Amino acid sequence: MVTTPSSPPSRYKEAVKLFEETADALGLEEEVRLLLRMPHRELHVEVPVRMDDGSLRVFAGYRVQHNGARGPYKGGVRFHPEADLDEVRTLAALMTWKCALVDLPFGGAKGGVQCDPATMSKTELNRLTRRYTQNIEHIIGVNRDIPAPDMGTNAQTMAWMMDAYGQLHGYTPGIVTGKPVELGGSLGRESATGRGIFLMLQTLCLDLDRDPAKTSLAIQGYGNVGSWTARLTFKAGFPVIAVSDIFGGIYNEGGLDIEALDKHLEEGGALAEFPGGDTITNAQLLALPCKVLIPAAAGDAVTEANCDDVRAEIIIEGANHPLVANADAALNERGVLIVPDILANAGGVIVSYFEWTQNIQRFAWDEERVQHELERALLRAYRTVRELSREKEMTMRQAAYFIAVERVAQAIRLRGFV
Ligand code: NAD
Fold this sequence. Notes:
The chain is of the alpha/beta class. It contains 14 helices and 12 strands. The protein has a 7-stranded mixed sheet, with helices on both faces. Strand 11 (314-316), helix 10 and strand 12 (337-339) form a beta-alpha-beta unit.
């Protein structure tokens, strides 16, 4: 008899539901389902940090390895007040499906520390990162599990992680991706997720015969993903009519000047105070009459409570899990075309894979090669998903999961687990 190890909790429950629906569509055998329902390994660590004022604080840290049948675990590290086990577990599962969908030889993992980086100094963050790395060091490795940046972390965080790991194991640049280029990072990694979203948008416009100049965009979040998406789409002539960060947004019906916005931010200005647009809230941004909405901030941005407000015809999921399941269903019902996170934001992990291979080979690629290979890998996945969704009359999310789950299941079977 097959038994389930433990009943999954809230957010992760939604992820399991989607997996089960896919497994039903695939006719997946029960033993494979059993292996894929819960993560392979979950590590919870305490991360004590001496703060600048002399006090000691202890943060909760996690590393969840969801499935490694297709290769070493791979996934970002999030520093965020809501980065609890349920969230990290959900994001680890997404990484398994994302890596399989874009056919990378990686499994899925995620890390997180429950902290608010905006309220911490650089030295506190340095100490936090080093202690977290020391505490998870025994389960990560170049051929075991390779962390990367996510919300609240960046290239500097990865440099600290590489250094902390290197103090124990010697020079190991391939232990993390998303590093500064000077330390073995890849050219094109910083912009990769935004570039991937831009490529999705550009290809969709070709497929749907839409004119970029008449395809207005609203982008929630102006961090790594949101800002690069805005820069690249603006440069290509898409009107970016609104952007936001956690404090609020700006809107200009005729399109924002993203280069001028970046200059304003570089000079220390607040996003919501940019003179080239009117101030709006994040709730207003989600409800704007734009053609394409790109949620690129936190998860669960569109819920049952606000999905009726969304007026976009297309949603490209820059963030991970920006739509709760009921909102996703309601928007599909209304005919909104949704490009799912595991496809739309996969540009980051694709270039992370290139960074890892460059580190292993000790050979750096030029940016042209990185961009060419990114485009090839991502558009191949896009076409497979679009074709399957048309052929089987599925949503793009259902098609993406169909492909990803079957690939992971096949790796499990071939390894002889079942
Ligand atoms: P980031 O920390 O660089 O930026 C996050 C942005 O979102 C900031 O502008 C922040 O102010 C804003 N924000 C945060 N909470 C918000 C809220 N509640 N409402 C509105 N705005 C809010 O993070 P990032 O790396 O750009 O990641 C953004 C999303 O994309 C996350 O869901 C992440 O998991 C996903 N993602 C990131 C990458 C990557 O390569 N960085 C790759 C794939 C997916």
